[in-house]
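Title: Prediction job returns without error message
Component: structure pipeline
Severity: low
Priority: P3
Assignee: unassigned

Description:
Job completed but the reporter wants confirmation the result is attached to the right record. Sequence as submitted:
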Amino acid sequence: MSSSEKYLFKSKAGSTMMVSNDAADLEDEDDDGDILDSGEVMAPGTKGVLFFANQVLHILQIGKKIGIDAKNHIAIGTDFAGLVATLPEATNAARMGEFAIKLISTLEKISLTTYNITNVPDFVGKIMHKNAEDFIERWFKNEY
């Protein structure tokens, strides 16, 4: 990013970016590009899960387009690196188990066989910890 471009992405004073579970935020916009729409899988208290699931599906789609099986490369950390705001269902690490259960429930409502995913709980386990563990193990063994 050039020095002039960095100011294009500055937030306005007092603005915040959040994913919330407020009733007004559960409305879904037509043609917003979401892979999953809230009407298909939304349950009360899962707006952040739906947001995250859409990000996961997008990564899987891009991986498939470029010939990479991305399911073994997606991970979420307890520091939420890269997120602008924490997800309302996982505001801290203590709630990650609850988040994983809701993510499994959301992803089980759609077919993931296009991405060679037949066991959603195992896939969510990869996202929640296994992929990160595998990465760290390969890193320390210098197996890249």
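Comment from assignee: result matches the submitted record. The longest helix spans residues 120-141.
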